[in-house]
Amino acid sequence: MLGIIIGNASVIAMIGIGEGAKIFTNKQFQSLGPNTLFVIPGSPGTRSRVTGVPRTLVLQDAKAIAKQVRAVKEVAPEINNRITITYRNINTTSTVIGTTPNYPTVRTLEIKEGRFFNNFDIKRSKRVAVLGPDLANKLFDNQNPIGQKIRIQNTTFQIIGLTVAKGSSFGSNNDDTVYIPINTMFSRLVGRTSPFGINISMISVSAKDENSISAAEFQMTNLLRRRHKIIREDDFTIQTQKNLLEISNSITGGLTIMLAAIASISLFVGGIGIMNIMLVSVTERTQEIGLRKAIGATQQDILLQFMIEAVILSVTGGLIGIILGGGSIVLVGIFTPFQSTISPAAVLLTASVSGAIGLFFGVVPARRAAQLDPMVALRTA
């Protein structure tokens, strides 16, 4: 039974963890913002051939999208970089995002205290900053950061706002981030420019509604190809939440199947173990078998007896394994970000497979027991 228990627990746990990972990634995509598209510099081919991210998007591209693409509601270009941030004697390196006032709407970023910077701050290139809660705790502990001044790469900024905790997205901690006006970012900190304008890291775009996402993607592609005078391969990539979600679900689904397949090997090994034990049982119970056949038991009766015993062993082990697997999923949900999910289909499948394994591997010992000659069995015993 031990092999069946371990196999069932492993399969249940792996499928549950896979489903939890899928739910976790879906929530991360939803936190990026509703009906959001992302324009990223470089095509997948160019990003694999060069070091770092190609600089093919400029600020004027974002302004052109906002002005000319009718399916788009709001646009938020951004320049991001890892920069040292200082407050008094505390130093830390965090992500600094230079963006526009549309960013909170496009990326569903909420302000807990103070305010986000506005168009006046952008035009004046004001040195103001909005902090994520984790970064605020690092620098100010339990103090109120609003109105305080920090230094970002030797430039002083005044804190005007604090965001609501949002968590991490794909390895990037949104709460360990500082947001500043995009004009201040390129004029004071990075200074990255090209002959075509100010290089930006990404453009986040919010479509008017869910039905406008495909139209927005098509219109932005045509616009950027005209602006960049592209004839062949695009030097940018447009990703939608739906595309990212499909890629993520296919990856997590494949990993879940692979892990479940590896765990199911234990079920096969457990079935072999049941067969071996039942074969030994036939040998040890030769007298019982001979006695039953001598008083009228048929081959079918003996066959059925040993088949039922094998199925009971495997089903009992399967039920115990299901309980242990469910308990392990609950523990995973407690100690990890993954939501604990016990799939009813997985439970039904593993219970059925356990019974089928007992039935399959019980055939050989059951047939051997049924075919024993009663006289030989009694004489051997």
What does this structure look like?
This protein has helices at residues 2-31, 44-49, 59-68, 103-106, 119-123, 133-140, 182-189, 213-227, 241-284, 286-294, 299-335, 344-361, 363-370, 374-380, and strands at residues 36-41, 72-87, 90-99, 111-114, 128-131, 149-152, 155-163, 168-169, 172-173, 177-181, 193-194, 197-198, 202-207, 236-240. The protein folds into 2 domains: 2-25 and 246-380, no CATH class; 55-234, no CATH class. It is built from 14 helices and 14 strands. The chain is α+β, with helices and mostly antiparallel strands. Helix 9 runs parallel beside helix 13 and helix 11 (299-335) packs antiparallel against helix 13 (363-370). It starts with a helix and ends with a helix. Helices cover 55% and strands 20% of the residues. Strands 2-3-10-5-7-6 form a 6-stranded mixed barrel. It has a two-stranded antiparallel sheet with strand order 8-9.
Low-confidence stretches: none
What is the number of strand segments? 14
**Strand proportion:** 15-25%
Task: Look at the helices and sheets and give the structural class.
Answer: alpha+beta
User: How much helix, percentage-wise, in residues?
Assistant: 40-55%
Largest sheet: 6 strands, mixed, barrel
Enumerate how many helices there are, as a single number: 14
Gross morphology is elongated
Number of domains: 2
| Radius of gyration computed on alpha carbons | 32 Å
Overall average pLDDT: 82
Distance between the termini: 28 Å
